[in-house]
Structures are given as C-alpha cells and as structure tokens.
Amino acid sequence: MAKRGVRGYDPEALRRARETKRERTGAKPGEWTQEHVAELMGVARTNYMAWERTEGTTRTPTPATIKRLAELLDVTPEELTTVTPDEATLADLRSWAGLTQADVAAGLAVSRPTYAMIERGERELTRDQVRRFAHLVGRSQKLVDQAHRRGRG
Question: Which of 31, 65, 80 is a domain's end point?
C-alpha cells in the first residue's frame, strides 16, 4: 500500500516555523537553516527543501515525519497543515500523532482494514474504541467523537 501524506500539509507553514525557531533561539550562523534541520532530521537537504517548496513539485512528509518536525520546531503538527482541530477527521488526528492506520488498528485491537473502514466513516467506533483512540492520539474523547462524525459525512 502506498504511503500518503498528511492532509492539508502546508510547506509555507514549515518554512515559517523553521524561521521562527531561528529567530526565537537567537541562532548562530548555520543554525536552523534548511541544511541544519535536514541534518537534525537525518534526511538529505534536497528532501527537506522539497518539503518547504511552494512551487512546482512539493513533497509531503509522512505523518511520523510531520510529528518529528513539529517537535523539533516547537509547534504542533496541525500548525504545519491548513486543517484546524475543529475540522479534523480521524485520519487527521492519527496523522498529527505520527501514527499509521496499522498502529491505530493495533491499539484498538481491530484489523487494519476494519480501522480503515472506521476512518472512512463506514463503521462506528464503540465507546471503548473512542477512549482508546483518544489516548493513542493524545486528544479528548469529545474531539475524537466530533472527528468521527465529520468522517461519516
């Protein structure tokens, strides 16, 4: 299965977060540049540059990478997207937590295809699954309920 990026990923938000980190820390020359962040992330500078590119072909980081970038730059994962928590779906909450569908499925004790159906709004979440999902992604049960309802259309 092909990996998909994070919905609403905003390369300009990543650039702003990096530049804000540089300003806030009073960085020395060479700190918090694209090259420096790429090195801290353990990726090639060209890959990092593609994440910040706003024209042409932009690469979208994986959910796990978005989470790591957010931690490194002292922002929340959703700040690197155009999606707000009040419009988030289960997939958004999962992505912001840096988790795959398989990760969440294991945490809910269901198969990945079953979880994928839940995420697409084709199956209900039980109260226990809402509680466990909220714990997995570090969000409130209320937000998880709302996100699930949004996914159901």
Answer: 80
